[in-house]
Amino acid sequence: MTLTTEQHLLIETRVTNEGPSVVVAYLFWFFLGIFSAHRFYLGRPGTAILQILSYFILIGFLWLLIDAFLIPGMVRSKQQDIRQRLAYQLSAQSGLIPA
Question: What does the alpha-carbon distance between residue 38 and residue 52 come to, in Å, rounded to a whole number?
């Protein structure tokens, strides 16, 4: 799948507009971390629920601290998912791949 420079710019613009923000993720982590809001925000509801449940056995608090280091990678992963979705959609619209 080969995209033009214009299509790459469109994708990056949409990722910036639609993708998650590291700053917002950290704000959720800091203020609503006990509710795993940062994981819900980053599209990880399964691990968010596991994290909430694990608070009852005190492991969740350690997990919450570890997330402080994992947030940038989770944001990049979510942004990459958006890039791939948009590239596929643009390719389908351009006729590069069958819809």
Answer: 12
Each residue of 11-45: pLDDT tens digit? 999 999 999 999 999 999 999 999 999 999 999 99
Q: Tokens 């819900």 sit at which residue?
A: 40
Distances (CA, A) of 60 to 13, 20, 33, 65, 90: 36, 23, 10, 9, 41
pTM summary value: 0.76
Model confidence over 38-86: pLDDT tens digits? 999 999 999 999 989 888 777 778 888 899 999 999 999 999 999 999 9
> CB within 8 A of 42, min separation 6: which ones?
20, 25, 71, 74, 75, 78
